[in-house]
Design goal:
Length: 248
């Protein structure tokens, strides 16, 4: 029987004093804390399985509150996310929930977060994001890493590979701002492999290094080596990743 394994790591990195990232895998969430070691969960292929990361916006209050709220909502709504429309509508509801929570508490004003993830269905993959957290197709049969998400970032200045600026997020503004989520569908088959991660991994670690690690390792070892690559690159931000494998 086909099944899905998800191996995840969340860590504050070497510079930030706390973790503002959160993670959801099906009904399981990890909010603003860290895993000492990669954690692997298994699920039968069939019912909608949501796997996503949320990265609280730095420099604004309560990023970990915003990211935690988002992944808890996704965990609750996950079994209903069976189409692109359902995902888009869910993200709109969650965006409104972030603003509503901020409106109720002045200490949470302007809190916001990115989100990126997938919903694994029986025969296809729903891909979604708002902000600059990413979903990558890292299946063994591809020639290079293939980005399935769409960064919400301004054009890069000449010579720059990354930017910390995002052009849309869930919450993050003084007044309610609607979002236009990126939602798409990709085919799904046995042997497929996907990486969902915050920019604490992709900003310091170039694609060729990610590719090298993923070609050399699987499962928990791959997740550990990805985390280690970000740490060796200085660990400038919170690092959260989920590696998804479709198995026969």
């Amino acid at each position: 029987m086909p099944y899905v394994t998800v191996t995840a790591v969340s860590h504050p990195g070497l510079v930030r004093d706390h973790n503002e990232d959160s993670l959801v895998i099906g009904p399981w969430t990890l909010c603003g804390t860290m895993t000492e070691n990669p954690q692997t969960l298994g699920f039968p292929l069939g019912s909608p399985l949501v796997v996503a990361v949320a990265d609280g916006i730095g420099g604004q209050p309560a990023g970990e509150v915003a990211s935690g709220l988002v992944v808890r909502h996704l965990a609750s709504l996950g079994p209903t996310l069976d189409s692109e429309r359902a995902v888009s509508e869910a993200l709109d509801v969650i965006n409104r929930s972030v603003y509503a929570a901020a409106d109720r508490d002045p200490e949470l004003a302007t809190m916001g977060t990115t989100v990126a993830g997938v919903v694994v269905l029986a025969e296809e993959l729903l891909v979604f994001n708002v902000g600059d957290s990413r979903v990558l197709d890292v299946s063994a049969d591809r020639s290079t890493l293939h980005r399935l998400s769409v960064d919400d970032s301004p054009p890069l200045a000449p010579g720059r590979r990354t930017t910390s600026i995002v052009t849309q997020a869930l919450g993050g503004a003084p007044r309610f701002t609607a979002i236009t989520p990126h939602v798409s569908t990709a085919p799904l088959g046995t042997g497929d492999r996907f990486l969902v991660c915050t920019d604490g991994l992709t900003d310091p670690v170039p694609d060729d290094t990610l590719d090298e690690v993923l070609r050399a390792h699987d499962g928990g070892r791959a997740a550990f080596e990805l985390w280690k690559s970000a740490i060796e690159a200085g660990g400038p931000d919170n690092i959260t990743l989920a590696l998804i494998d479709v198995n026969d």
